[in-house]
């Protein structure tokens, strides 16, 4: 979550620096600079393999969240995709996300 906030502020400052939000003291730029960045309560949060514990045999994953650990979250996919997901940590995160999105 900290990285998400830091990246959001970096993107905002980069947009201001290159002039995407208008000239200094323009209405749009003043509005962007005057309020903090906020995220929706139901916004998606990125997870990496340090937050996940995989049980490939059971087809479930345990996810560490800010509200605690969610256990036995099911995942599914084609045999080819599941084989790819089992190969590396990065592939598991990508595949799990893609499977959840239905691609």
UniProtKB/TrEMBL annotation:
User: Domain of life here?
Assistant: Bacteria
- What lineage does UniProt assign to this protein's organism? Bacteria, Bacillati, Actinomycetota, Actinomycetes, Pseudonocardiales
The protein depicted here goes by the name: Transposase
